[in-house]
Structure formats: C-alpha cells, structure tokens
Amino acid sequence: MSVEDREKFLAGLHVGILGVDDPRNGGGPLLVPLWYSYRPGGLVTIQTGRETQKARLIRGAGRFSLCAQDETAPYRYVSVEGPVVAVEDPLPPAEREELARRYLDPDTAEAYLAANQGQLADDVLIRMRPRRWRTADFAAFAEEFEQ
C-alpha cells in the first residue's frame, strides 16, 4: 500500500488487535482486540483501564503494536508498531465520548457511556507514534483470478 492508502485504511473503522510484549512465564505477546482511533499523519490512540494487564505491559514495554484488517475479500491489513508518546490519566471525557461514537450509533453510544460511567472513569488514554508499518492489499492479486 502507498503511504496515503495505509494511513486512510488505518483511519477507517476497524477493531484493532493490540500486541504488546508479555515477558511473564516465557510466553509470547499479549494480543487483544480493542477500539482505537487514528488520523492520517497522527498518533494511534487507545484507551484501557489504568490497572489492566494491557496498561501494565504497555507501561513496561514503552511501546505496542496494532493490527487492523478487512475480514472480507479482497483482504487487506495494516500493522503499526511504535513507542508510547503520551499517557493521559485520567482519560479526557471528550476522548472517551469520541471513541464510543466512532464505533457505536448515537443512541447506543449514549447508553454505553451512561452504563459504563464508573468503569470508564478508571481508563487512561495511551498514544503511540507509528514507526514501523506492515501492509498488504490483496485486491490486485484477487483481480488476476477474476479475469
């Protein structure tokens, strides 16, 4: 993918898979799905509870990876990895609301925010600067088989 294509794709609506090194018990990385936001040229933003395993591992590693994909053909994905450049604690309410509205319709977002008000108050915002990109777009590959 071109730089423009990969940034546009990452800015699109996808559930991301966060990856962070997990040195406990000699295991592999911790991988978990989550909501995220990204604007082309900007930072990847996630939110999580300040005392979750995700947050502890990210603080320890000082970096994380995120992968977003299309789950229908022709398949595409963008994976980014980079350093944490900011942690905002507590999570700014406007950021919490923006992320909920990104993934949910207006009525559901309002209900979600109201129902999770207490839990969301324990969240932090983590910003990562993408340094390494990996991408694939299988559209051209798929076109070869459609002819």
Automatic annotation (TrEMBL):
UniProt key word GTP-binding: no
Xref: Gene3D superfamilies: Electron Transport, Fmn-binding Protein, Chain A (2.30.110.10)
Transmembrane spans: none
SUPFAM superfamilies (UniProt xref): FMN-binding split barrel
Superkingdom of the source species: Bacteria
InterPro entries listed in its UniProt record: F420H2_bilvrd_red/Heme_oxyg, Split_barrel_FMN-bd
Key words, A-Z: Oxidoreductase
Protein name, entry field: Pyridoxamine 5'-phosphate oxidase family protein
